[in-house]
Amino acid sequence: MQLTGDRFTAEAAGLGNDIATLPNFPAEIRAPQGTLPGVSSFQLHFADFDIVTPGDRPDVLVAMNPAALKANLADLPRDGVIIVDTADFTKRNLSKIGWDSNPLEDGTLESYKVHALNLTHLATETVKPFGLTRKDASRTKNMFALGLLSWMYSRSLEGTISFLQRKFAGKPDIRDANIAAAQAGHAYGETTESFEFRYEVAPAPMKPGRYRQVSGNMATAYGLMAGAHKADMQLFLGSYPITPASDILHELSKRKDIGVVTFQAEDEIAGVAAALGASYGGALGVTSTSGPGILLKSETISLGVMTEIPLVIVNVQRAGPSTGMPTKTEQADLLQAIHGRNGEAPVPVIAAKSAIDCFDTAVEACRIAIKYRTPVIMLSDGYLANGSEPWRIPNLDDIAPIEPGYATEPNGTDAKDKPTFLPYDRDPETLARAFAIPGTPGLEHRIGGIEKAAGTGNVSYDPDNHDAMVRTRAAKIDGIVRDIPDVEVSDPSGRARVLVLGWGSTWGPITAAARRVRLSGRDVATAHLRHLNPMPANLGEVLRRYDRVIIPEMNLGQLASLIRSRYLVDVHSYSRVRGLPISLSELEQDLIAEIDQHTQEA
């Protein structure tokens, strides 16, 4: 189903539609077939206008077995279209998911437009001439379904045929069978009279440029490469595979051609230690992981705080705690990112708002890490990581250079008034320490995890020095606010009294829900945070402008608690921890109720 969805997405993108996707698959490598936990799904929203979410109420559901039908039926609105493969609707398979009778026969689906087809039989009959095994023949049903949907939405099969020719070039029987199945599905839609409608979705208006389809993880990888390139530094990724962050490692491992070095470590600790060592040696060290890996990396991140070495940590959040639900999304690592280290160890924290925004956020993470000599945590999540959008490929010349500013000569004098290098002598504006690549003649210096003496970097246990260094490191991070743009508020009417504040991937549902609320004649304002530590300088003033501030999050109110403590504003937490993006339809209705209540009270 992931392949089928990806192919339809590629065709939609090629036609110029705006797209947003939500792949959803089991955590197990071989999930129990025919069970509810084993259902793999791919949701796609495509349109002839700007869209910001993959939607939450699909118009068409294609179900390949009873479990897929049951797992997704509740999301389908009444009068929605169901295309269902009847091949597996046996008594045994129905009982496996708790159905005592066949929903295709007992009236369960009477509110929907149902097309019950034996897709498996249609596909296997189509590919008989190719001599496939029964198992391989039945697998072509996804291509048959793709062909049928392509006809239904007036799509050409040329791109899919080219893809199959490339993918199975070494297996001509598999290649030809899948092509035949896709063509047969398209022909079935053309010749059958059971479908009342056929749809055509025009291209969406987009800025001129060259576009490609990217996932959040791919955009993150490209952003890291761009950041290293703009700093003229070698990119080094030290990582350990973990869902849903592994694709960053996969993508960067393909780019040896431009000097990217990837190291698949034996564990999370080794991955981040290697990355920090690479940064110490003059490369841009990056490590990618998810929440459980951040726990293991925290000691080395603290070492990066103490030594004040650039390091980018990408946390692709997933549902926890512990192993949790590895393939499901969540936003519950915010407090961990901001506070999850021993001692006073502040680091900048930034979050991407969409799959394509992962590129810009990754570049920003590189810029802050290098300029301020600090570890930076970039937050993404499983929804952004696996989802796809059309991405307008940027011109690298439009991205501002990043100046590493390495020390090349002594910057002070020793007790004997001789020129020497002071590794903890600081830039008066940024408070970033002087950084010399090891081996630079005359700039030998001491480094390590024990507290540093100001200036010299020598080991120090002096109480006053420790107090000064702790406060200086904190002031350095706080000072990053100078580089952070003010938070912008979207309030088209200028009359809204309710503000919806989001961070990370809630941007899509909040933006879409606000559009619907405004179409209903109500006023609502929205704002979004990329920078979470430090936060924009004008945020407090913005929050106090509104009578009510609502913060939707996929956690139990982590940003809400930070906002309350920092700004003393009584914000309202809107929490959802279902392993899925926040439902825009549910959020729309709840916002309408909140606004109406506030209007009555006023």
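the 2nd protein, sequnce then structure:
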Amino acid sequence: MTESSFSARLSELLRFIYPELDAHILTSQVIEAFWPEEKHRRKQPRKPGNNLWTQNDAVLITYGDSLIDGFHKPLDLMHDFLLTHMKGVVNGVHILPFFPFTSDDGFAVTDYRKVNPQLGEWSDITRISSEFHLMSDLVLNHVSSQGVWFNAYRQGQAPYDKFFFEADPSDDVSMVVRPRTTPLLQEVETAMGTRYVWCTFSHDQIDLDFRNPEVLLEIIRIIRLHIDMGVRIIRLDAVAFLWKQLGTNCIHLPQTHAVIQLMRLLMDYTTETVILLTETNVPKAENLSYFGRRNEAHVVYNFPLPPLILHAMMSGSAKYLIDWQRTMPPAPLGCAYLNFTASHDGIGMRPAEGLLPPPEIGQVIDTIREIGGLVSMRSLPGGGEAPYELNCSYFEAMGRTFQGADDHHFARFLCSQTIMMSLEGIPAFYIHSMLATPNDLEAVERRGMNRAINRHRWNYPELQERLADPESLHARVLAALSERLKLRAEQPGFHPNATQFTLNLDQRIFGLWRQSLDRAQSIFALHNVSGETIEIPAGDLNLIADEKWVDLLSGEEVTAGAVEMAPYQCRWITNLV
């Protein structure tokens, strides 16, 4: 794509998004917003390929204040934790919204250009970004009701007087897909009179109106700021809801995809290597649509994974996990999946729709409640509610099966995380999974929010003391996960785009065959999701003759005979050591 074709493609997208405006003027404005005079762009776009990531890549997900001590800046403590415990284990870190905010633990932003002073400052962010691949949140669907932009809107100040999506109470919004049960519209008094603003998530999170190109231009300027501060992975938060159009479901609209394509086009021409990640907690086909035709997100979350692994470990059967994985396409060239089991949010249940039968989902919900977890609901179009997410520490969620509690808690959790490490894609670990943090029910009661159950703030000196004791549960989990991640990073067969084939084995075994891009290494990744000892017949694994096969996790040589799997045991059997 030449310089002229870059401008032509940018104009084409802008003409589609804003058909009534001058696309040439908008093109110049977008270029100026993203590449101010002192900035330069590539002459040729970055071509799709498998070189944006390797098997060395893994991400830690954390809040900026997941570690506190009452004296130091939380970002200082996080920096110390990353250097002390995560160096060589992960090379990326997703610091959840680190901006000033009013609610939703950072996702109601008041100022996109500042670092929350309670966490630290930009120098703390750039220090981390100089040592780890830094992911930041672009909360582009909505802003805080108490932020600078919305206050200016209420006062009728240009350009913010046209920054927010308005509707009328008489409008038919029955088709609108909602992730929450709160009323969609909020009545507010402004200098222009009474207005009803759109609130997809909460009344403190007012939706922006991307029909106004000034909104898009300001978001592009913010992306440029983040890149200049060292951000290399930009997470497009709640992006599926970006474009609204009355009479539709207001999710996944064509203009939303066009805006992402525009952002991808800009990233393809940045001198910095920047990856776009879309956060779309929706069923599979809708989620995969955000790869576009290799022209939207570089990476999408593998959202079905958390509930499907949870069900497999609780039920002792990988049937539904296997059925789903068999139908999953490899990521397109230049794209990858982000695999995870836990995040700052709950375990999303929408991606399980159509994959887990309702009775199975019911059993999972019942078991989570027995553990002390919670269930959050969403509104259905036309009325009614359905489970939206399960709120529970993933480590705690592994403490019980459908049959009840047992002595396999640690092994079951380690198995769940090893499955995630073995799959095609880039693994991401929530800090509270790495630390085996229990449910924080006190925080739920104190904050009145279900998600607080999995957003514990560790007292850093106390955590350090526990991690210093090798017999503590926290130290054991961190050590086990770290060891496997370091081992994984040495295996070309675990490249995010390495060949993957789902094995046809006993349904209690989730088995994958991975093969490196150069075909030199094969790995048979086997995971027993049950509490029973299982023997895999020799003929079920295609162990090539005249090769030496070794289980990387146990160190033992594997012969051509049957392979035994202890309860919740995992094996990485490879021909290349």
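The mean pLDDT is 95. The radius of gyration is 24 Å.
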